[in-house]
């Protein structure tokens, strides 16, 4: 068995705004494992500025993995516990080596028999741009829309009010993602304003790391709170339990590239379900390689909620896609 990797820079079709700033491109690394004429491909989808493993020795660790690819997976997982996106790429490549043909988790999804319902994502921008995106998603038949908020709440609030005037909560599920954009004091007010508009949930209203403040918000919130960035960097099982016990969120959101791949996601799901905490899976600007693997994994979890998967359409130079979006349903192209 041999392994190699290469770096790839994904270019956005247009700058994409979040509360952490505007994104122009997205760096990623593609891992290839070969054995007896077969090849498995995976994406080590680092997210600069957000990933726990965004550190100077990242490529050194990738080189180390390629040199030690024949070692026992249990040993590799332990060695890569502080590099969740590299482990994520390794898991994909090994599965793809086994199944081939862009398949990672064979089943009804990869046979083209069933699809995944996803939410439509609205990127930050001026009011006109956000409304244009919303109109596009509604015309495509989405029943669940997620808006990035936390840059100009006054304008964002108006957009949500307009949407609710047109569509009831039964017609359109609205989710918002603040990416930690509010202070605790601001969040208290925003949570009530969101409740008044029947918003489904808010992701990460305040910055990650303030467990006590987040616990207080979750205990009193009129709008369900979902933890996102809060999970990043928590690799120990006992620490994961402690976080969920302390904060007691209504939901957690799993980005496999940021929380230790599929096995890391499985552990979070198991711990959350023990405490009756809801969850769903989202992508994190992966290329079509990682996105395809996440979609296949997501289908196996049988969660009926709309999932937060991308479509790969944000980039001008993406790899060929195995996925196809029809209305709000994501299908695998057989």
Describe this structure in words.
By secondary structure, the protein is of the alpha/beta class. The model has no long low-confidence stretch (mean pLDDT 95). The strands form 3 sheets. A 7-stranded parallel beta sheet has the order 5-6-7-8-9-10-11, covered by helices on one side. The chain has 10 helices and 13 strands.
Summarize the biggest pleated sheet: 7 strands, parallel
SSE ordering = EEEHHHEEHEHEHEHEHEHEHEE
Protein structure class: alpha/beta
Ends apart, CA distance between termini: 28 Å
Helix content: 25-40%
Strand content: 15-25%
Strand tally is 13
Q: Count every helix, treating DSSP H or I runs of 4 or more residues as helices.
A: 10
Stretches with pLDDT under 50, minimum 5 residues = none
Which strand order does the major sheet show?
5-6-7-8-9-10-11
Shape: globular
Label this structure with key terms:
334 residues; alpha/beta; 7-stranded parallel β-sheet; 3-stranded antiparallel β-sheet; 13 strands; 23% strand
Compose a concise summary of this entry:
The protein is α/β, with parallel strands linked by helices and 334 residues long. Helix content is 36%, strand content 23%.
Per-chain topology:
Blueprint: E1 2-18, E2 21-35, E3 38-44, H1 58-67, H2 73-79, H3 84-99, E4 116-117, E5 120-122, H4 127-139, E6 144-148, H5 153-166, E7 173-177, H6 184-196, E8 201-203, H7 211-220, E9 225-227, H8 237-247, E10 251-254, H9 261-274, E11 278-281, H10 288-300, E12 323-326, E13 329-332
Parallel strand pairs: 5-6, 6-7, 7-8, 8-9, 9-10, 10-11
Antiparallel strand pairs: 1-2, 2-3, 4-13, 12-13
Helix pairs in contact: 8-9
